[in-house]
Amino acid sequence: MKKVFEASIELFDKFASGNEMGTSRKANMYRSPHYKRQKEIVKTAVWDLAEEAHVEIKDGVAYKLREIYEYPVPAAYLKTKKQRAEFSPSTVLPITRGTSDIDNTMKPMHDAMMDALGFDDSQIVSIEAHKRYKLGDTYRYSFELYEMPSGVELEFYE
Predict the structure, then answer these.
(1) Bridge partners, residue 10, by sequence
(2) Which of 80, 93, 115, 118 has its CA 20 to 30 A from that of 6?
(3) Distance of CA 76 to CAs 72, 73, 83, 140, 153, Å?
(4) What is the DSSP letter of 61?
(5) In this structure, are residues 146 and 56 in contact, taking their beta carbons and an 8 Å threshold?
(6) Would you say 69 and 105 are in contact if contact means Cβ atoms under 8 Å apart?
(7) Which residues lie closer than 8 Å to 122 by C-beta, 6 or more apart?
């Protein structure tokens, strides 16, 4: 597989969710202002980074997406200097209601990426997604996009 693009984007608001929907008086569904605002922030950041890196997305090509959603580690997990010094994102996993479900978090990020890079999300044929805690107050979305050649065997339930 050939890496086409990678990016990391810091966000100051919690991750938007694909479930953030509202209903108008006419019972029409719409995306929340938070969803729309975050999608625009990510779209602009991805577009700027892709233009700087001269990324070329091709029609008719399949892609694999690897991504990580990083949340600020709750202060309750870092009550002492020792806990802060020993913190590792692999030891405390974000499985509480304080973090969004990963599948809901993916929707706004994927919509923004597709708009920024100008390709159809049907071209994504493989996704590897993770969520973790990190030190600091910001949220971070990082991803890598790979061209996926035909004939690639998938290992499933190893």
Answers:
(1) 140
(2) 93
(3) 11, 8, 10, 20, 43
(4) -
(5) no
(6) yes
(7) none
User: Please, what are the averages of pLDDT over each run of 10 residues along the chain (158 residues)?
Assistant: 94 84 61 87 95 91 94 86 84 78 89 91 92 93 92 65
User: How far, rounded to the nearest angstrom, does the alpha carbon of residue 52 sit from its chain's CA centroid?
Assistant: 20
Q: Where are the beta strands (DSSP E) in 12-76?
A: 21-23, 29-31, 63-72
Query: Whose CA is closest to 5, among 100, 113, 95?
Result: 113
Task: Provide the 10 A C-beta neighbour count for residue 107.
Answer: 17
* Closest-CA residue to 132 (of 99, 107, 105, 97): 99
Token digits of residue 140: 């971070």
Residue 108 and residue 46 in contact, taking contact as beta carbons nearer than 8 Å: no
Report which residue type is found at 35: Y
126: number of Cβ within 10 Å: 14
Q: Tell me the β-bridge partners of 7.
A: 143
Q: Give the 3-state secondary structure of residue 119.
A: coil
Question: What pTM was estimated for this model as a whole?
Answer: 0.86
**DSSP-derived secondary structure letter, 34:** H
Interatomic CA distance for residues 105 and 100, integer angstroms: 6
